[in-house]
Design goal:
The protein has 12 helices and 10 strands. It has 368 residues and is α/β, with parallel strands linked by helices. Strands 2-1-3-4-5 form a 5-stranded parallel beta sheet, sandwiched between helices. Helix 11 packs antiparallel against helix 12. The longest helix is centred in the middle third of the chain and has 40 residues. The radius of gyration is 36 Å and the shape is elongated.
């Protein structure tokens, strides 16, 4: 049986010096002063600030000016039932945890308290250990809930920051579904090309690719590959909306450098991974004049095969070497030679030789 404490509650010096934000605030509501004092002394510790009152009116007066982590609440109070305090907490959307204490032997008191969200219900007489254990359990659960809320808030803040960065990026960022239709576009699409993004969502990516670059974009804009083999720094031209407002006074195509990769997911850990779409980012190249044939694309690509030329090869090779040195990895370069190609030109014609080169180049683009 719990024996009421007859003396004054012990308030350690360290408790008074502790930061108010770090303290666990507990409100004891009991109309028997000796019992309230003994509960206070029993639960007191350096990290707890405990207050006491003896009526519903006194409790509501305190709750109107302060928030608590835990309320130890007697069921029978002089001016009303302790359930009135719980009703007030519910009506004001408060988060305090409640342990109800009652001498009532009927189930009505326990059912009424638990229906109102009480964390625990103790019948008098109870032992000191029962109360300590109940308080410790309730506070531990409360801390777990607080930690979960903090994690959720951090994740939500992180997602909001990510959305902000994506939406305000200088790059055109998009995702495609498995059929090559836009499932997401950031607002850069409007300032760069003048297309309302709402009009492009659900449309095929070919709607904005320059007609002469469609063949080259077919295996890159809707990239399926990931890792080193995914599309990297590919120059393409996109078409402006002739009736839209853009950041430039030009009306011709916009040359961009594209990076894209496939998106893969699975419904559960046992299901196979399947292709879900493409994630891509495109950066405009303001230095390229749209009035020039193919913009700056032909500067770095062979006009016959549309494959990267030696200048672009050297640039990408130097970049790869620098990255390999920084990451302490290795790279490999594969040279492909068409054996006896001169014989094709001599036997047939230069036109047939060019056709063969274009066919081989197409095979390479489809395979790499």
């Amino acid at each position: 049986m719990f024996i009421p404490w007859k003396g004054q509650p012990f308030l350690p010096e360290g408790n008074r010096r502790a930061s108010a934000e770090a303290l666990v605030r507990i409100l004891v509501i009991d109309d028997e002063p000796s019992l309230a004092r003994s509960i206070t002394a029993l639960l007191q510790s350096d990290d707890r600030l405990i207050e006491a009152c003896g009526s519903v009116a006194g409790a509501l007066a305190r709750l109107n000016t302060a928030a608590y982590d835990l309320i130890v609440l007697d069921f029978r109070l002089p001016d009303a039932s302790g359930l009135a305090v719980m009703d007030w907490l519910l009506s004001h959307d408060r988060r305090e945890s409640v342990i109800m204490i009652s001498a009532e032997q009927s189930m009505d008191a326990a059912v009424g308290a638990l229906r109102r969200g009480a964390a625990d219900f103790l019948l008098k007489p109870y032992s000191a250990e029962q109360l300590r254990r109940s308080v410790s359990t309730v506070l531990a659960k409360r801390q777990q809930e607080r930690s979960r809320r903090q994690v959720h808030q951090r994740l939500e803040s992180s997602e909001q920051m990510h959305r902000y960065l994506v939406e305000n990026s200088l790059d055109l960022i998009y995702t495609l579904d498995a059929d090559g239709r836009f499932s997401y576009l950031n607002q850069r699409i409007e300032s760069l090309l003048g297309h309302p993004r709402s009009a492009l969502l659900g449309k095929h990516f070919s709607e904005i690719v320059h007609p002469e670059d469609l063949e080259r974009a077919r295996f890159s804009f809707n990239e399926r590959r990931t890792g080193p083999r995914a599309t990297s720094n590919l120059a393409l031209r996109l078409t402006r909306n002739p009736f839209g407002e853009t950041e430039s006074e030009e009306h011709g195509p916009v040359t961009i450098v594209l990076n894209a990769m496939g998106i893969y997911n699975r419904t559960d850990s046992r299901a196979p991974i399947h292709y879900a779409g493409t994630y891509g980012a495109a950066r405009s190249l303001p230095g390229y004049q749209a009035s020039e044939p193919n913009g700056g694309y032909q500067t770095y690509h062979d006009p016959l095969t549309q494959l990267p030329n030696r200048d672009l090869f050297r640039d990408r090779l130097n970049l790869s070497i620098a990255q390999a040195k920084r990451r302490k990895t290795h790279i490999a370069v594969l040279f492909i030679d068409m054996d006896r190609f001169k014989l094709v030109n001599d036997t047939y014609s230069v036109g047939d030789g060019d056709a063969l080169l274009r066919a081989v180049a197409l095979r390479l683009r489809q395979s790499l």
